[in-house]
Amino acid sequence: MAQAAPSADPLPVVEIHDLHKSFGTIEVLKGISFTACEGEVVSLIGSSGSGKSTLLRCINMLEVPDSGTVKIDNETIKLRGSGQQRHIADEEQIRRIRSELGMVFQSFNLWAHLTILQNVMEVPLIVQKRDRAEVEQEALEMLAKVGIREKADAYPNQLSGGQQQRAAIARALCINPRVMLFDEPTSALDPELEVEVLRVIKILADEGRTMILVTHDMEFARSVSDRVIFLHHGKIEEEGTPEEVFTATKSARLKQFLNAASHE
Amino acid sequence: MSEDLAFWLSYLTNGKHLTWYASFQFTIFAAIAGGTLAVIFGLLGAALKNSRFLPLRLVGSFYSSIVRGVPDVLFFLFFPLAFEQAVEWFMATQICTPEAIAAQSAAWPPCREANWFLGTPEYLVLASVSLGLVYGAFATNVIHGAMRSVPRGQIEAARAYGMSASQVLWRIQIRQMWVYALPGLSNVWMLIVKATSLLSLLQIADIVLWADRLGAPNFLPTVGLVHDDWRWRYYLVLFLFYILVTLLSEKVFGALMARMGRGILSEART
Known about the structure:
Low-confidence stretches of chain A: 1-5
Strand order of the largest sheet of chain B: 1-2
Mean pLDDT of chain B: 89
Distance between the termini of chain A: 57 Å
Oligomer: heterodimer
Structural class of chain B: mainly alpha
Number of strands of chain B: 2
CATH topology of the domain at 25-206 in chain B: MetI-like fold
Number of strands of chain A: 12
């Protein structure tokens, strides 16, 4: 064996360094750094307005940070300008990187004019330019995996919220994502539909997929995460394993937040 | 009785009537070509209005706000004439020799070689372009509004998955826009259909012109008075034609709406 033994250090997939983001005069992110490694599930928690969704949206540049860097697989996303005028510098690069980040939105955002199967196949065919037969087979497998194989030919508006969100997860899976980004995936769902979506996300986490999850569901964050990050007023207030964060809570603000959350 | 029938048959199939029937093709051509161009100009106008560059945005806004206010009759008279003379002027700069200009006695065109004779086909094309330009301004507004009705989240999802700006535009925004645009576009279409009755202004022997001629009191030296003023009957036929076109259009737009609204309109309506 001439090759070096695989390093024990996990490979960083998403590296965020010193992100700042303001909307107008309101500073939403005040210098955030964190890393998500291969196979890691990182949950972002915090009250509404803490900046957790904005942080997630900075990873694929749906929001361009005013300063700071985002690296995906050790490749820095190129930005130009500064402050609120900062914008994407390399369209080609961002399209390539985005096509490897599977984002799941709070409001599903399935394309209404396409069937479920077409929704799942759209990006692999149009952006990744893969072979149709291969993509179709994979798309059907993904739909089976999230349990809505029989809805392949339905339109999104014919499905329940839970089914739509599972279709959106299948859409994210079918691009073979390096990272899955979940933006409050169950917040728009009734409690009884929440369960079916959480079950799917749990399966994905157990498969060892790299995921970053914004959630308000503390129970779920606890059961699914390798690491939990608590954001407060645009800063990381506390982070650690679920055990450390939820049981051996250090920050007073987090204690207060968890207390309020458990009394919801 | 049978004599009556024979009279009517031969009357309604005489040369002038056959020409009248044939002239319906001009009207139908102008409507379809004008409608298609209006949608194309509408898409262009909406794209301009959405442009990131201020000058283009101004052109788009100018087009949709100013041209909408120009009476179609006026534009019908203005545009083909202006276009014809512009072409003649351009040709004159290319081919007129000083001698030819000196030899020309009329005020326009500058020389005989630069004269561009417009026949019915040319006028028909110019009429269609005029219709397209005038009603494209309405379509611009309709399409611009419809583009904004496409849910933001779906456009964001398309961007988040790495689609390029033009892929987002064509595959998501324009594809979904039709549902919101069709009711407005069907209005524009009906206005275009109505405006086709203006073709005779461009010296096209269209259905209105013929109805006028055929309905006027008709004398034949051999027979005497064939009929007196029958214009209202001929106009009635035109009414029926336009009503038929309206009904047909409603059907077509209904079908288009069902096709484009699949997945977007709620189940109850499809």
